[in-house]
Amino acid sequence: MPNTYGSRTLAEWLTLVLGVIILLVGLFFVIAGADLAMLGGSIYYVLCGILLVASGVFMLMGRTLGAFLYLGALAYTWIWALWEVGFSPVDLLPRAFGPTLLGILVALTIPVLRRMESRRTLRGAV
Amino acid sequence: MRRSQLLATAACVTFACAPLAANAQFAPAGSGGAPTSTVPGPGNGSDNSFEPTESTPAVKSRFSGPSPYAPQAPGVNAANLPDIGSMDPNDVSQMVPQQSANPARGDWSAYGRDDSQTRYSPLSEITPQNVDQLKVAFVYHTGSYPRPGQVNKWAAETTPIKVGDGLYMCSAQNDIMKLDPVTGKEIWRHNINEKYEAIPYTAACKGVTYFTSSQVPEGQPCHNRILEGTLDMRLIAVDAATGNLCEGFGHGGQVNLMQGLGESVPGFVSMTAPPPIVNGVVVVNHEVLDGQRRWAPSGVIRGYDAESGKFLWAWDVNRPNDHSQPTGNNHYSRGTPNSWAAMTGDNALGLVYVPTGNSASDYYSALRSPEENKVSSAVVALDVKTGAPRWVFQTVHKDVWDYDIGSQATLMDMPGPDGQTVPALIMPTKRGQTFVLDRRDGKPILPVEERPAPSPGVVPGDPRSPTQPWSTGMPALRVPDLKETDMWGMSPIDQLFCRIKFRRANYVGEFTPPSIDKPWIEYPGYNGGSDWGSMSYDPQSGILIANWNITPMYDQLVTRKKADQLGLMPIDDPNYKPGGGGAEGNGAMDGTPYGIVVTPFWNQYTGMMCNRPPYGMITAIDMKHGQKVLWQHPLGTARANGPWGLPTGLPWEIGTPNNGGSVVTAGGLVFIAAATDNQIRAIDEHTGKVVWSAVLPGGGQANPMTYEANGHQYVAIMAGGHHFMMTPVSDQLVVYALPDHKG
């Protein structure tokens, strides 16, 4: 095992960075999205923001659940975007393009998160 | 507007502060309130008694400018020209037929090619089949561009004219030149030594006017003349053959157009459009810098004798029965609507069609006289014999949205009710409403409806008009009113920012009234719809070509106290600093209770517009078969645009904001640059397909033109760029032709 207790691989660090990004985006969505909802605008952002905050927190905890929560938020985003603008590429660009790119990265972290989870389980068993 | 304008300088270091700054046009002061003591009663005054008089004491506050009765500052009369005398309009000599009345096939004799300003050329050597072989024939450098230390206020906007053996044009700073139309070699150049300080909002010279004298015999100097109005308010006449000043015109070839305008400073008033000559009368209008003060210099329209340069008449809106020059310490009425667009002459009816703008202080109308309210943002047909209006057609009532008309009217024949043709004019507007009027009486030929508009609005004592005119017989050059779901961005983050910005503003569709408590969204914006590029019309096919913008604005009135805090001062204030408020952007509107804050409706952090693309369109309308849209598509690619002003290099035809018009030819092609992708392109007139494009050395914010010389067709475009459109400035006129072997 290359890992000794307390050290992390590059892949694990990148996973944590991704978790921080998702948490920050989630916080922005919650705060600004609440502002928008109170102004009478869409409630998508505040709801999606709650999912993202949870996703980010669980990813930082090294839990696979974090990645699945993000993918859930992505599915919600696509359904909402298609409901709001239909199959219009220009309008899907701001709504779904960035989240989907991020989603590909999140999918890549699933094996890493699994490894982190199993290591923690092993440590817990010692 | 400048790139730096209102870009928030406070760094938002976290995402979370961004939504709080979503409407950070300025922070609500929470103090001030409407200074009712200076608001004169409900509605408009019944007389013009608000204009300061000689006995009005000067206000001694930090933000006050000079009295309108103060003497003109040194340098305002740039050439130190003596006053010009008047003559009786009845003594104007009979005009000989002009080149522009019936241009030679290969000529482009006026700004819009001919007296009808159709921008249609009968040339047909270049066709959709061979246009892809176009090559640069020559490039000419005008020599006018910002020097080190000078603020970039350049946008040449120039269209050369071509008459006989010469291509005549002006530089952005009004030097006049004649070029060989085959080689681009300078035949003569007349430098007028215009100072940098004379540049108003923009250093632009849209073109020059060709005039053939009936008094000077053929073969004598100044039989054929080039006339030009300048940024520093001179009317200049030079000999077309040599470029020498015409001694018999004005004072040694020049007329001082500051005469009678009262107090001013360099850059406050300026001429940028070529003056039309109608039945021997050269008609001049001028731009008055927007947003400075309520009592800015007059927007008076004047007629001069094209032979002698002598004054003939003035149309001063608030002195409707006095067409003479003011004498002594008097001046033309201050603050009246100005006209900066190219005007169109009509020799047969003896009229000049003046597209007007707003009274000074565009966004507050309570201090306007009833006379001003009748003629602002309108087409005014002036009788060139007297200077009196024969008819007026208003396109916006009590305009507080800067919907001044930028386009030149195009003349055409419309089929009448009983088989005969009706002399018509087409008037594009910034609203994207295109009005088709009978030029004999100004009556609409295609239906115009007065529809309810949001009123009275919220500004104390300044109610909006309950109705506004809509041209229902013409396709509207606009998209539907904005919705939250129209907000756009690179990602959900900036899209969310724009959604909040949208929801935080007042918006009830077109004509949303100005507000003080929060911003309001103005769509269509003041860049149009149609701006100064005007339209081109092919009288053979009946196809009308229109390019237009989808660029909403984000506006807010601010109290005088807040305006002072923002440092908004009029240009003639002793404390004025360039950049501290100017046309098309924030303005002091000194003399009214409010200042104005204006930005594009954009994300100020990324520089991207808040609304979804497209931002610019081009449309072909079939005028012969029921005004149907033949084709319509976005104009301009994303190659030179992107977030943070970075070029994306993408060939995606996103549709960019555009300034500048089109040319349509008998070869079946439309030539247009205009878009902010710095390209010129040829479009198939009948299908709308882009069949050729080329990258220009600067922004192509100018009207192209086409001509024939040495048996070949050429296409010319001034790639001068535009500071407000943020396109690269250059001093290059680029001229294209088919390669020699094609001949």
From TrEMBL, chain A:
Keyword annotations of the record: Membrane, Transmembrane, Transmembrane helix
Designated name of the protein: Glycerol dehydrogenase
Residue intervals passing through the bilayer: 12-31, 43-61, 68-86, 92-113
Superkingdom, taxonomy of origin: Bacteria
Automatic annotation (TrEMBL), chain B:
SMART domains: PQQ (SM00564)
Protein name: PQQ-binding-like beta-propeller repeat protein
Pfam families assigned: PQQ (PF01011)
Record CDD domains: PQQ_mGDH (cd10280)
Ranges where the record places region Disordered: 28-117, 445-475
Alphabetic keyword roster: Oxidoreductase, Signal
InterPro entries (UniProt xref): PQQ_b-propeller_rpt, PQQ_mDH, PQQ_rpt_dom, Quinoprotein_ADH-like_sf
Cofactor requirement: pyrroloquinoline quinone
Record domain Pyrrolo-quinoline quinone repeat: where: 108-715
Family: Belongs to the bacterial PQQ dehydrogenase family.
GO cellular component: membrane
Molecular function per GO: quinone binding; quinoprotein glucose dehydrogenase activity
Source species of the chain: Gluconobacter aidae
Stretch forming the signal peptide: 1-24
Biased composition (Polar residues): 34-58, 91-102
